[in-house]
Amino acid sequence: MPENPAEEFADRHYPLQEDMQLQRRVWRFERIGWGVLYLFIILTLLGLFSKGVLSKVRTQNDSGSVVVEYQRFERNGTISNLTLRVKAGKDGTAAIGLDGDFFNNFTIETIQPTPTAARNQGTGVGWVFQPDAEGWATVRLSMHADGVGLVRSAAVSADSSPVQLTQFIYP
Amino acid sequence: MDVVLRAAAIYLILLIIFKIAGRRTLGEITTFDFVLLLVIGEATQQALLGNDFSLINSFLAIVSLIAIDITLSLIKERSPSVAKLIDGVAMIVVEDGKLLHERVRKARLDEDDILTAARETQGLERLDQIKFAVLENNGKISIIPKQQ
């Protein structure tokens, strides 16, 4: 015999005082919470929290002479990679740098290949690399995120327009 | 400074996630649940301490966690409604030998769980020997047998 649900969810007072209204709210909270957990898993797999299709960015400047690949979403304390591809200038060397906002939020751990020269460039650092036979230099940086929050920085090349980088570092 | 914030964040996150998981999830602990808890602890530890493995950092983390816990218990003592919200409320699942089906289903229990508790705690064999079965707010099922 099916129970009357309304009667079943009425508060009992003996042997204990129930609060079925709160209990039903708790159940609703649980159900919504499960949805949120699954949503987090899906977003994580998609890369909202770094490493995934939502996170990976490939961008270049107007002339296409500087191409940057990086993670849009970073995590504080974690090492990630950034790749710069730079076309060599008239002097046969490839010069590229990153501005001060980048260095305020990231510490570079390694830089490959080793630059032939490094110098201060505005508030940041600029490097010079030997390009390959086609006139391109590919530079891989491994960096450690120190900051938290939104970071707007730029990859700056002496003789072409800069590439703007927008990143978010999770705490 | 950040260790206090880390501890507070971890405390809040764990509180919410375990509320979402519901009282049944880790109420009756099996070996697997126990291992799962250890792994959760391991995952938490990194975020709690960061890269700082100094004695003072772990001391501060422990102090912060315990202090937050004490604060919460004081708030619960002052305000019964907060206590109910955080701890949950007990609920009857068997009344005079009759299973309250909808409640049991919503609480992710079944008849077997109640009969197991009845056997373990009271040595009862059937549902009709139970006067009340109560799902307590700690996730355990307590059984009040009928007077023979």
| Secondary-structure-derived class of chain B | alpha+beta
Biggest interface, chains and residue tallies: A-B, 22 and 25 residues
Which residues of chain B form runs of ≥5 with pLDDT under 50? none
Order of helices and strands of chain B: HHHHEEHHEE
Count of separate DSSP helical elements of chain B = 6
| Helix/strand/pairing category of chain A | alpha+beta
The fraction of residues assigned to DSSP E strands of chain B is 5-15%
Structure overview:
- The complex is a heterodimer of chains A (171) and B (148).
- The N and C termini of chain A lie far apart (55 Å).
- Chain A has 3 helices and 11 strands.
- The radius of gyration of chain A is 26 Å and the shape is rod-shaped.
- In chain A, 22% of the residues lie in helices and 44% in strands.
- Chain A has 2 domains: 6-46; 56-170, Immunoglobulin-like (Sandwich), CATH 2.60.40.680.
- By secondary structure, chain A is an alpha+beta fold.
- A 6-stranded mixed β-sheet of chain A has the order 3-11-10-5-8-7.
- With 148 residues, chain B is of the alpha+beta class.
- Chain B folds into 2 domains: 2-87, no CATH class; 91-145, bsu07140 like domains (CRO Repressor, 2-Layer Sandwich).
- Chain B contains 6 helices and 4 strands, in the order H-H-H-H-E-E-H-H-E-E.
- A 4-stranded antiparallel β-sheet of chain B has the order 2-1-3-4.
- The mean pLDDT of chain B is 89.
- At the A-B interface, helix 2 of A face helix 1, strand 1 and helix 5 of B.
Short summary:
The complex is a heterodimer of chains A (171) and B (148). Chain A is of the alpha+beta class.
Characteristic terms for this protein:
heterodimer, A: 171 residues, alpha+beta, Immunoglobulin-like, 2 domains, six-stranded mixed β-sheet, five-stranded antiparallel β-sheet, 22% helix, B: 148 residues, CRO Repressor, four-stranded antiparallel β-sheet, 6 helices, elongated
